[in-house]
Amino acid sequence: MNNNLVSYSSLFFNIPKENFPKCLVGKWKNSAVHSESTIHQISPYIGKMKSTMAHEIIATFTRENDVIYDPFCGSGTIAFEAWKLNRNIIANDLSIYAYVITHAKLFPYLSLKKAFDEINAAAKQAKMFIPSVDLRKIPQWVRLFFNSKTLRETIAWSQILLSKESYFILSSLLGILHHQRPGFLSYPSSHTVPYLREKKYPRNLYPELYQYRPVQERLEKKIERILKRVPELNPKLKRQCLMRNASDFIPNQKVNAIITSPPYMRQLDYGRDNRLRLWFLGEKNWKSLDNIISPHESDFLKLFKSCLKTWQNILLPNGLCILVVGDTYSRQYKMKLPDVIVRMATKEVGGYSMIYKYTELIPNDRRVRRGCNGSLTETILVFRKD
């Protein structure tokens, strides 16, 4: 460990210098499903950061009442953990799906009564809307996933909730959109990435999985599951959720820390893998969206260099830029992505000093595409604004 790291850790985080390199190690290796807030489970998101990892990073490197900015917020894991830890949060993402579920986590219903009142109000509107849904205008690939009656209901509910900006209920609906379990709305399909499982669950052997599934009763049960384990949350803290281009967006206030996990140079396709949920949110062209939110290497490197420049104008003096990145290899730089970012931040863009770096193996059971090519490790990079 270098001397700058020792003095910075001792001064700002009250972590004994001999323990600082180990302060995060192993804190997030086990499953968090049964210990994290159930609000994190409102709707699936491919490649999302583990909640225990986000928690430890925020707790280690920031203080209560700090302002944290996540420019690539994805599923809102960092945003919600920051709020839970009494930090103010500004979250941002260009994907409407990421925006909706992050907004839901930052502005949840905290009682079943309030949530059910909203559901009942939406149900009355949806009932009036259902007869006007013309399935002939719905793409064939969408119709393949649903019983026709269920599909009409789901379209009505999603459009009503979207128009009302009822993002918590809408996210809950997206969370039960597709799976093979009875509590979900689609024909048998995968949960995270939508593809049908008709061969595994043939219609003649599993007829119950192809029948009509009413939306409201499943939505209410989903809400009950989401609100099962909710921490104490301070509603007075600032929570903001935006859809801006991270490369040039500057919030209306300076921040103590930027904490984010940027896209890994097209290793994940956030548009394609969320295409069904995106369709119900009005995003019809997931391929075009992927070019923006899942950029290939050259576009990603341009984007990230622009971000590093912009973030200089956002961070307070001595503010921290904390990045969690995979080990994607850059053909342009002929090195792995963490090393590329270090070079960009400290030499090409400048104005940053690296004070902490930690790399950990990603267990196979934490990877959505298990056993396939992709990042095998992830690295935490902590930079200080000079």
The strand count comes to 9
Portion in beta strands: 5-15%
CATH topology of the largest domain: Rossmann fold
Average predicted confidence as pLDDT: 90
CATH class of the largest domain, named Alpha Beta
Tell me the number of helical segments per DSSP (H or I, 4 or more residues long).
Answer: 14
- Rg of Cα set: 22 Å
- Identify the overall geometry: globular
Order of helices and strands: HHEHEHHHHHHEEHHHHEEEHEE
Strand order of the largest sheet: 3-2-1-4-5-9-8
Q: What percent of the residues sit in helical stretches (DSSP H or I)?
A: 25-40%
* Major β-sheet annotation: 7 strands, mixed
Q: What is the correct CATH architecture of the largest domain? A: 3-Layer(aba) Sandwich
CATH superfamily (homologous) name of the largest domain: Vaccinia Virus protein VP39
- Tally the structural domains: 2
Beginning-to-end CA distance, first to last residue: 19 Å
